[in-house]
From TrEMBL:
The keyword Zinc applies. One of its GO terms (cellular component) is cytoplasm. This is 3-dehydroquinate synthase. Its cofactor is Co(2+); NAD(+); Zn(2+). GO terms for molecular function: 3-dehydroquinate synthase activity; metal ion binding; nucleotide binding. Keywords: Cobalt, Lyase, Metal-binding, NAD, Nucleotide-binding, Zinc. It comes from Robiginitalea biformata (strain ATCC BAA-864 / DSM 15991 / KCTC 12146 / HTCC2501). Residues 176-317 form the 3-dehydroquinate synthase C-terminal domain. Its EC number is 4.2.3.4.
Length: 353
């Protein structure tokens, strides 16, 4: 499978990824190599990496706790201190082996430790493979608020190997599948229909490269998210607010990222019918396809105002205005759309029907 070349690095797949890592390590004089895992990938994925690269057994392993709840500055402190205590210098390398929490947090740690050391991402979840593999976004959450602290910085390379997906449960696969469906909705109607016809999210694994290529095509045109790259946020304005609310509320079960984004995409598809002339039958198609894979989540009516208040923290906002990415049709997105408050309430009703 051919590598995908971004402006700054390559995304390698399968056997070529392993060879690229071996070649890079042999040709680069790193003073020390560190590998960042969480407690799950340390158990299930690190042994596979060592099997490919036996010398990885001698790399210093730093471990954080798994899950979005641990994607915060406190975990960064632990990793920074671990790097410092183990003698990391500006010629060290950090290999981030894990899902989006590990690659986002690890990339941020590497970008800021001693004003920046180099890093490599090896995503181990479907979500990280199709979403965090391109674009250079790094960072952590601020309390329950998603990705409020971070920088855009690129890895040396990204390595995608599907063997790691065998460690995921079906819910995690569904979470990643949501981002793939989004790629089709914003950029490629034929891809959306291809994914919509799949029986299970597990069948989407064969399409990982196409999702990475679609995202890379957008990012290359707008690396710092001034304009076009904003279309990648479809479903994320309301989705992130919902994810943050469920993460921070003691009486609600935490949602995985993709689960929250699915809700956001259904809500924002409804908004698009009112503001961007998205045909209603297409909004209903989006809703029906998504709900065929993702159980409807009960969002108590009394929780809606708090979710809406969280929208003010969305990173696309400017001059106090909450701006949405919406669809003009399946396969074509537009951005910087203001949404009246009364339509937000109606979108929740549409999802709850």
């Amino acid at each position: 499978m051919n590598a995908i070349q971004t402006d700054s690095h390559a995304v390698f797949f399968e056997d070529a990824a392993i060879e690229a890592l071996r070649d890079h390590i042999s040709k680069t004089s790193y003073s020390r190599i560190f590998v960042l895992t969480d407690n799950n990938t340390a158990q299930h994925c690190l042994p596979e990496l060592i099997r490919w690269i036996p010398e990885a057994a001698s790399w210093t392993c730093l471990e954080i706790k798994a899950g979005e709840a641990h994607k915060h500055i406190g975990s960064c402190m632990e990793v920074w201190e671990g790097l410092s205590a183990s003698g990391a210098d500006r010629h060290s390398l950090l290999v981030n082996l894990g899902g989006g929490v590990v690659t986002d947090l690890g990339g941020f740690v590497a970008s800021t430790y001693q004003r920046g050391i180099r890093f490599i991402n090896i995503p181990t979840s479907l979500l990280a493979m199709v979403d965090a593999s391109v674009g250079g976004k790094t960072g952590v959450d601020l309390g329950p608020l998603k990705n409020q602290v971070g920088v855009i910085n690129q890895p040396e390379m990204v390595l995608i190997c599907k063997v790691f997906l065998k460690t995921l449960d079906p819910r995690e696969l569904r979470s990643g599948f949501a981002e793939m469906l989004k790629h089709g909705l914003i950029r490629d109607a034929d891809y959306w229909r291809q994914l919509a016809a799949l029986e299970t999210p597990a069948d989407a694994v064969a399409h990982i490269r196409h999702s990475v290529a679609l995202k890379n095509e957008v990012v290359q045109q707008d690396p710092t998210e001034k304009n076009l790259r904003k279309i990648l946020n479809f479903g994320h304005t309301l989705g992130h607010a919902i994810e943050s609310h469920f993460l921070g509320h003691p009486d609600l079960e935490t949602l995985l990222h993709g689960e929250a984004i699915v809700i956001g995409m259904i809500l924002e598809a409804f908004l698009a019918t009112r503001l961007c002339d998205l045909p209603e039958h297409q909004a209903n198609e989006i809703r029906d396809v998504l709900l065929s894979h993702y159980p409807r989540v009960d969002i108590p009516r009394e929780h809606r105002p708090e979710i809406v208040r969280l929208l003010i923290h969305d990173k696309k906002n400017t001059h106090g205005k909450v701006l949405f990415t919406l669809l003009e049709q399946i396969g074509k997105a537009t951005y910087n759309q203001e949404v009246p408050a009364d339509l937000l309430e109606a979108s929740f009703d549409y999802y709850a029907e």
